[in-house]
Amino acid sequence: MIKKSQKSVTVQVPATSANCGPGFDSLGLAVTLYNTFTYELLPNEKLELTVEGEGASFMKASPRNLAFLSFFKLWNKVMKKRTGLRIHMKNKIPLSRGLGSSSTAIVAGLLAANALTGKTYSKEALIALATELEGHPDNVAPAILGGFTISFMQEGKAHSVRLMPAKPFQLIALIPAMPLATAKARAALPAKVPMEDAVFSMSRASLLVACLLTGNLTDLPLALEDRLHQPYRLPLIPGAVDAIAAARQAGAFQGIISGAGSTLMAYAPLSANATQIGEAMVQAMAAHKMQAEYKIVNIEKNGAKIL
After folding, report:
1. Taking the domains of the chain in order of start, what are their residue ranges?
2. Predicted confidence (pLDDT) at residue 9 exceeds the cutoff of 60
3. SS3 for 106?
4. Same fold yes or no, 8-163+301-306 and 170-297
5. Which residue pairs, CB below 8 angstroms and at least 24 apart, start in 155-160?
6. Longest C-alpha distance within the chain, in Å?
7. Is the pTM of this model over 0.90?
8. Is the torsion defined by CA of 90, 94, 96, 102 positive or negative?
9. 169-185 pLDDT, tens per residue?
10. Separation of alpha carbons 286 and 129, rounded Å
11. What is the dihedral sign for C-alpha 115, 118, 124, 129?
């Protein structure tokens, strides 16, 4: 159980890019961009929050704040006493951009509570708890496990398989100034899709996993294609189609919507000029009067960790 001397813990959680093109609600990867959370137990039952970076102007201490909600979800299962809690966030992951910012809060709270109650939950159990809060595992699984993850639901419980690509490649995240709420992105999806489109995306998702496992990246331009969600979400992001085309022309394998958007993620060979790809995507968005910035990132191998 909790040690009397351990009253605080700091957790670092990576950004994630879900769906990875054709793997809707099932594929995801962790990337080298992080939010950091420090949790401190308080002798009373007060909730306190300080924030640096993203969300500093409006985030408040509340039982409904995901960083608090997730902490107490695990804490209350293990401990028989209530506690106050102070959280300090250092947020570098843009909000509502398809990079898993909400998942970082969920994962941080669970890992912090697990550490402060004696580490009784395995990573698999933490993924299951996180999925209960997030609704689907494609962001929380890579945030916890790192690498590239394949997630599935069995009898209402989330399970995930982690792998690392056999051959490295580059990732360039194009982050528009415009946020895109997940609810809006999901509302754009049809209730049903043609069988042909379902088979198309299923085959592409299978091909993507094969490319990563074998290290044969030649087919990545095809493997990252999708017909389940991207055709319906791309119109929500001004300039996205042209930005993806610009990325390919500049040397990328392919560009996709990261998560629900609005971030676009370009996959590129190591031989490509990542800066040139990023700048080409920014210029394509600017032609549609959309400001954007780009970040060159790598796959985060280890996932969330206690610092």
Report:
1. 8-163+301-306, 170-297
2. yes
3. helix
4. no
5. 157/128, 157/131, 158/127, 158/128, 158/130, 158/131, 159/124, 159/127, 160/124, 160/127
6. 59
7. yes
8. negative
9. 999 999 999 999 889 99
10. 41
11. negative
